[in-house]
C-alpha cells in the first residue's frame, strides 16, 4: 500500500499559513467559525477538546480498519506513518516553523500541525475504505492557508474554528 500521492503532493507544495489572521481565502461550501485572536488560537489548538475530536475522528478509521480490514491495517499502518514522519514532514516543517514565527504564534503549534499532517495523510490514504469529512475539511483549511484550531459547538454539531 502507498500513501495518497495527491494528498502528499498538495501538502508538500502548500503555502503554509499564508492567510492566517485574515478572513479571506477560506474554503467554500463548508461551515467554519473564524477566529482572529492569536492567544485563543494557541489555547484552542492545544486544548483537550480539540485534541480529543481529532483523535476520535482518526480512531473511527483505525477502529473500522482493525475490525474490517485487519490484515491491510496491521501490515501497512505503522510503516506508512514512519514514511510520513521521515519523508514528508521534513519537506514542510521549515516552511511551517518559519511562518509560525512570522505570525508570532506559539512554537507549540508546530507540533499540532505535524500531528494533523500525519493524520490527514493517513486518513485520506485509507479513504476508499472509510471516508472522513472531518479530515478532508482539515486538509482544505490548511491548503487555503489557514489553521484549523478548535471546534465551535458540541461535537459533532457545530463548526471547525479557523485562524
Q: Features of this protein?
A:
163 residues; mainly alpha; three-stranded mixed sheet; 3 strands; globular
Provide a concise account of the structure shown:
The protein is mainly alpha-helical and 163 residues long. Helix content is 61%, strand content 7%.
Descriptive report:
With 163 residues, this protein is mainly α. It has one domain. It has helices at 5-13, 38-45, 48-68, 70-103, 109-125, 133-143; strands at 32-34, 148-152, 159-162. Strands 1-3-2 form a three-stranded mixed beta sheet. A hairpin with a 6-residue loop joins strand 2 (148-152) and strand 3 (159-162). Helix 3 runs antiparallel to helix 4 and helix 5 (109-125) packs across helix 6 (133-143). The longest helix has 34 residues, at 70-103.
Radius of gyration: 15 Å
Number of strands: 3
Amount of beta strand: 5-15%
Distance between the amino and carboxyl termini: 34 Å
Biggest β-sheet, characterized? 3 strands, mixed
Poorly predicted ranges: none
Global shape:
globular
Total domains, how many?
1
Structural class: mainly alpha
> Which sequence of strands runs across the widest sheet?
1-3-2
Per DSSP, the total helix count is 6
Q: Give the H and E element order.
A: HEHHHHHEE
Q: Average pLDDT across residues?
A: 95
* Helix content bin: 55-70%
Amino acid at each position: 500500500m502507498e500513501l495518497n500521492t495527491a494528498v502528499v503532493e498538495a501538502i508538500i507544495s502548500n503555502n503554509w499559513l499564508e492567510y492566517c489572521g485574515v478572513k479571506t481565502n477560506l474554503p467554500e461550501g463548508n461551515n467554519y467559525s473564524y477566529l482572529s485572536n492569536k492567544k485563543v488560537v494557541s489555547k484552542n489548538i492545544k486544548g483537550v477538546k480539540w485534541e480529543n475530536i481529532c483523535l476520535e475522528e482518526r480512531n473511527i478509521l483505525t477502529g473500522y480498519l482493525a475490525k474490517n480490514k485487519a490484515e491491510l491495517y496491521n501490515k501497512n499502518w505503522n510503516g506508512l506513518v514512519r514514511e510520513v514522519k521521515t519523508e514528508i514532514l521534513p519537506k514542510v516543517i521549515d516552511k511551517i516553523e518559519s511562518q509560525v514565527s512570522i505570525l508570532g504564534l506559539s512554537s507549540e503549534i508546530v507540533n499540532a500541525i505535524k500531528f494533523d499532517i500525519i493524520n490527514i495523510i493517513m486518513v485520506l490514504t485509507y479513504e476508499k475504505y472509510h471516508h472522513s469529512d472531518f479530515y478532508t475539511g482539515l486538509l482544505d483549511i490548511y491548503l487555503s492557508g489557514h489553521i484549523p484550531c478548535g471546534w465551535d459547538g458540541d461535537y459533532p454539531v457545530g463548526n471547525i474554528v479557523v485562524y
